[in-house]
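INFO  loader      accepted 1 record
INFO  loader      residues=664
INFO  predictor   begin
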Amino acid sequence: MPKINVLPKHLAELIAAGEVVERPASIVKEIMENAIDAGADKITLEIQRGGITYIRITDNGCGISREDVRKAFISHATSKIANEDDLNSILTLGFRGEALASIAAVSRVEMMTRAAGDETGTRYVIEGGEELLIDDAGCPEGTTLIVRDIFYNTPARMKFLKKDVTEANAVAGVVDRIALSHPEVSIRFIRDGKDALFTTGDGKLESAIHSVLGKEFAKTLIPAEYELEGIKVSGFVSKPFNARPNRTMQFFFLNSRFIKTRTGLVALEEAYKNQIMAGKFPACVLNIEANAQSVDVNVHPAKTEVRFANEKLIFNAVYYCTKSALDKGDERVQANIQTKTQQFVQRQFMPQPVSGKQIKIYEQQLEKVSKDDFWQKTTASDYRHQPPKTEIKSYTTLRDNSAYKVERDEPDLISVQSKPEIKIEVKEEVVPVIKEQPESPVVSAIIEEKAEETAEAATVGIPKTYEVPEEEAPDAESYRVIGEAFKTYILVEQGEKLLLIDKHAAHERMLFEAFRASQDAIETQMLLVPVTVTLAKEEYSAVLENLDLLSKAGYGIEDFGNGMVILNECPTAVADGNLADVVMELAGYLADNRKELVPEKLDWIYHSTACRAAIKAGDKTSAYELNIFVDKLLNNPDIRYCPHGRPVLIELTKHDIEKNFGRI
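INFO  predictor   done
INFO  writer      dumping tokens
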């Protein structure tokens, strides 16, 4: 039988530290929670290199007396509880007495503290669990704790730490949650010598949300408050229209302690049922106040998981709190209608201004366009007698339901500076026409329709000509496009078969393959007005780690600081969509799939872009577009499934149809 050994003190402390100290963010959480328990209303945190080499936390709490300093670094020494009955009514953030001992076991720690009423403070130095110094020190009331060189004595654990920026963002996430849970505490966060966060500590949750999550996110929230059988829920929830593509902006607190609760999450989303789109999730910052005896927080070392004595009561309180907030605070969506001048300038795809001088040039440009507004100075009668001015070069894409797409010369920065006038040159239009197929009267009808349009267009001075492409006829078997069912499925007759094509699935696969084939040459568009997106710190870190990958996929994203990024460029295919949602969806995926290989991540991004850009079920599609689309699909037999794995085409044979009708 193996001999049982009593582990040495330092080894036992190293094992215990593994449960409490996982990374710098774990240390910051434990020390800041101790500061709040000590009654501090001002806390300053400074980190360097993500907190790996340096963490300093200063508070103005009650401090520690000289005789208790050594005790604070002994495992299971705490001032929060004294007997087993205290475990049934824990209201403090910390209570186990493991934090300081665990931190000191794996790093170099220096503490300076002075209790209220003491004339001098105490300086205490401990490294790797071994005391090095205890002496008098001049310091203000409160405590300053400095932690250096985390895991210096456990190199095996050091290699599991991430990049400095990733660790720093994890620390920032902890600070955000503490700031939201305690708006009465003023928190200052200094990151590598720069201020990253400051909260006023005025006790107002909306002020903390504004400082932590940003002004734009704060605008999407409505206040919520409800009390049910002693359970009080208060905070803010998002408007249904501002739902997000993931759950990263759902913050739940229990008695001002950040928790992860499945009960609260389900109750929140149930309250939004039938009010938000499928696949979207509400955001919230909600604090649940419950009797300490009805909650067990002694479940996990991180103290983020709790057990409720009555889960149903918590569910109902969160549900009715959210429901009542939506009934009272939600408003009709306000449309943001652009002026003709704004729409016209946006279509020019002008480059993003990079200096004050260029911004002034653009302001002059806008003013010039406004003065020379076509609709203010030209009548319909005058326009009909003007010579041709526009060149129409290409036929509409599948998603565009208009007859033609006008391609304008895009002014570059130099032309804008030298000649701020925007002109449209108009030339003769050339429209390609599919070769007539003997068995396709639909195509013949389209050609006749275009001929009628040519005659009509001549009355407004725009000559049109039609040319038949010189390429060979398609290799696919002859087919006839019958039409479209439910604005979703294209019906095609081909030989002895009837084909049903899911136009969204097929178009999605086409775009996906086109993105993969284009590699670094994806067609992109610079945004006249960049899109700013607020992300959770985990998502923010994941995006910064993958900027090169996103750029390769056509997304030009830059760091804006404090959990925000700026989208300056995007693939042309999704330029008309909700770009903020696109960025949040990409960020959520990258945060949840950090270990995926780069090619797999890139394929997912291409897939997501293709899905958003593809024509949707229910969109109206012209007969000409259907013919072009079917021709491309049937001449590419490799397209069988969409990126989700659904078939793009189903075949019904004539034999099967006649059998069902009893003809055979």
